[in-house]
Amino acid sequence: MFTHYDRAHIAQLCEQAQLLQRALEHYTDIFDIKRAIVHTHLLKPEWLVEYFGSLSVDDSLECLKAMLTANLRQNLQICVQIAGKYHEQLGTTKLIELFESFKSFEGLFYFLGSIVNFSQESEVHFRYIQAACKTGQIKEVERICRESSCYDPERVKNFLKEAKLADQLPLIIVCDRFNFVHDLVMYLYKNNLQKYIEIYVQKVNPSRLPAVVGGLLDVDCAEDIVKNLILTVRGQFSTDELVEEVEKRNRLKLLMPWLEVEFTRELTNLLLTTLLLRFTLIATIILRGS
To answer: What is the spatial distance between Cα 194 and Cα 186, in angstroms, rounded to a whole number?
Structure first.
């Protein structure tokens, strides 16, 4: 085995012959490495990923930048693989900044997607939500908002409000999980997104109806809209809480249509205390209205 020879000269000969793997195995100067490494179509992906394990942190970041600069579309996938494999050594923040510097939200999405399920870093989860929104991966935004316990709820809520997504379900999930119901109602109502208020209490979490009603009353929503919303919710919610929300705003009368409907239904499964509460409420309404 020959060990004493002009490695730089042999590397140049290999590069000229387009034997780039052999050239990179011999090059030691970062400028030579960057010149050769950008031609990823001439290198085996598996070998290239492993090759980065022999580079220093600074050289690795320089090479990734050179690859993305030379041909973003061609080299993005392999750069994502390398970033995912060596993110602990290279630094997640630096890799995020690298992809952002090229405005490659696709690269950022796939890179962070490879580590987000194993990461406890709040920044990773937040940046992944951002990238998923930018690339239209709304189902993935919903999943992370629903399952992750690592992101800052206030920060994500504010970002989703500013993002103005066509689908408001991610925002609904965050606000429901972290008790931002009043903020949610105000945002949806003021942006003419009332249909999502209906979706929230009808399909996502009917138990939040009392808080939603309170929020709607606070933004001076028309009483007919509030009455109809209450009538359309068929899930479980606290009658006590609903009464409390409307009573402290002096709007008890708007519950009358709902009470009338409730009394026409079978009462066999209702708790006695709920029945007594309804009778008491009706009496209160009559006395106040007289």
So the answer is: 10
Is the Cβ–Cβ distance between 206 and 235 less than 8 Å? yes
Measured CA to CA, the distance from residue 40 to residue 26 in angstroms comes to 17
Least Cα distance to 285 among 248, 250, 245 occurs for 250
Per residue in 34-47, pLDDT (tens digit) is 999 999 999 999 99
> What is the reported pTM?
0.85
Residue 245 burial (CB count, 10 A): 21
Confidence of residue 147 (pLDDT cuts 50, 70, 90): very high
Q: What is the number of helices (H) and of strands (E) in the chain?
A: 19, 0
What is the Cα–Cα distance from 220 to 80, expressed in whole angstroms? 50
The torsion defined by the Cα of 128, 130, 135 and 138, in degrees rounded to 10, comes to 80
